[in-house]
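Section 4.2 – Deliverable D4.2 (structural model, holo form)

The reporting period included a commitment to supply a predicted holo structure for the target in complex with fe (ii) ion. Inputs used:
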Amino acid sequence: MEPTSDRTEREALATRLLTSSVRTSYDPVVEIDWAAPPVPGAYWLPPRRSSLYGTPLWERLTEEQRVELTKHEVASAASAGLWFETILMQMLIRHYYDADPTSRHAQYALTEVADECRHSIMFGRLIEAMGCPVYRADPVDHLLGRFLKATATGPRMYAAILIAEEILDAFQREIMADESLQPLIRMVSRIHVVEEARHVRFARAELARQVEAAGPLGLSYARLLIGRAAWSIANRLVHPEAYAAVGIPPAVGRAAARANPHWRATLRWSAARVYDHLAGLGLVVGPARLLWTRAGLI
Ligand SMILES: [Fe+2]
Ligand SMILES: [Fe+2]
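Output (structure tokens):
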């Protein structure tokens, strides 16, 4: 039985998040002009955030190919985004299954599922509008995702949600503020950032509670799964097939990106906020820390 003060606090936060959801929620199907043609020559990502920026491979690309590469990198991130969202939706629905449906907390969990439903449609429309393929997870990660969405609860569920949401959020905040970029990706990013800010607050509050409630064994297991999730997310941001779109063999592009100091700095920059938060909760220690290092996130 949770203490009354905890329940009051939980309900107060959920009430604020529900009020905010009523005020600022978007339906991307109607808010976005999906038929608008792209702006010729405009990038989809700030070029310095491309995984190949500054490498000899980048130097050899024409300006047009560089723009094309950022488009496919965005399509890859959007594919990863909707894959994570599908996992999140199922985790939240499982959480809701055991919750009190009259509580604001449970109702906010459902509201978040509703947001993610719209986001996944938005990312699907984005990939389609860009004329890019869906960059799917490899079979191992696909299977791991299936396992996570069917079983994850407690700290590992909320920590995985936070990692995916906060890393994408770092990129999207920069994109929405950069007027030189394609209007379509700026609009998609703006909608996502506004709604995700609520998800991050909800997940952070839940995670703090779950960490407090978890035993030492559960926490060690959670740390490892969280580290593996961080590794998957960092690795899945740019699918190696994206390089083929500009004539670079996928394995060559991936190796160049992994060795690229600019890209490594970008990965650390994107994970800085969520890393600080999870490390502060003691979730990045021991062997789990190695997974974060291998992922290039710290
Ligand atoms: Fe989302
Ligand atoms: Fe979200």
